[in-house]
Amino acid sequence: MRNQQNKKTTIIMFLFICGLFIILSRNDASASMSANPPSPASKYSSWEPWSASISTSEFDITQCSPDVAASDRIQQGDFNGDGRVDLLCKLVAANGGTTPYVQLAGQNSFSAWEAWRGIAVEPGCEFDLVADFNGDGLDDWLCSILWQGRYETFYFLSQGNSFSSVGYLIASVNASQFNLNRCQTFFVDDVNQDGREDAICHYLYPDNSSATHVAVDDREYTHRWDLISPVSAPNSFRLDFCGALRSGDVDGNGERDQICHYQYPDGHSRTWVQLAMSGTFSGWQSWSESSAPGEFDLALCHFYHAVDVDGDALIDQLCMYQDGIDTGVLVQTDGPGTTGLQYGGWESWFELTTDVIGCRPFGADIPAVIDVNGDGMSDILCAYRNSSGSMTTWIQPSTSIEYDSWEAWTSGLSFTLDRCHVLLAVDVNDDQHTDLICPYRNTDGSTVTYVQRVVLYRVMLPIVMR
Q: What share of the chain is helix, strand, coil (3-state, %, to 5)?
């Protein structure tokens, strides 16, 4: 009797231990899965048509004019508030006006291109921007026109399926007093932290002094470009010497600062920044040591990006350097290992003997520098045009202290890359991996939107008990 009771107790204890082991194993597996993103050792799918074909008589994608602010023929935004990235084309009308066309993203498809205003904006937009200018969670469309000697800047509200017929004026200025063509570049950012995006202009005055101006929808109908930085005298800082202007948080306060790679006339260079300070910007200040003439030449950067490459949430600089023989990835990082928050010297993170000019542009960026594999680090993405006419999608993953070798994530696809009106690097299916979007122009002039998705490995959990 006692033996039977001991046996029963042993079985119960055994079952209890097994159950506890299963629970702990599942918790460990769950913790492991939540801590680690999907495997980066993956690939891209073949190109898939995600929209119906639309004829050139209904929509001619070749008439999508570049955006002066971002140099993109196709802009991105969330125009219906579903969290997906939609596409916008600023189409040049026959009369010279501008009509915004939008293609909405669905779960596994894109809608047809549709005009989001019934009539064109006349005269045509001098520049346009996409951002949420009224803080309702939908991206709007901003357009600036030159009308009777004045630059009128206004935005059209997104209504989820169209833009408002009436534009909301945020700035009006005499062109002789403030010529928007003297803006070296435009940005959008919430400067005054009121939940609405603002338009920012880096302005170069005729005497070569410079300053930063902003147009804000302050609901007070001031309608002006406000000065929000000190004026830089030409003997201290020349905005036109900035070989590249970018934006990003360099000092860790959560605001987007302005970054200039400054090229001196004698050939040496250094990085300057303009710090965002809750509604204003500082004057331009040096943010790196000087590079001697011949040591670093921005003109030899085939691609240049301001992006976080080392995962510290501060913006670094990345240059794909090509001197005619070798190609390397140079980065300029910040942090305690360099000079506090400032940039250190340029470091080589990868060397490669190849031709990267075959990389197809991603909007204004060639190639894209973005988190492709979901590990939180900025990888380099290149859609490569092969000599045979086929294409290969390559990525160069970041390991936070260097770049790995290039990996082919497709091989020799029979896909005419040159027929992509633009290439966009976007997460289309919310899996935290970067997919590719190509609005493709067929030989008959019609347009189809293609998508190339990241394909993940399937992670198999170990079977603890059968």
A: 10, 40, 50
